[in-house]
Amino acid sequence: NLVKPQAETIILRIKDHNKLKLSPKIFIDPELYPDVPADKPIQCLGSIVDTLTTFQKILQKLPNGNVSQISTDLFTLLGNLKDRMKSLRCTLKEPANDMSLDAFLENNATHPITLGFLALDRLKQFMQKLIINLDHLKSC
Question: Where does it live in the cell (predicted)?
Answer without folding.
Answer: Secreted
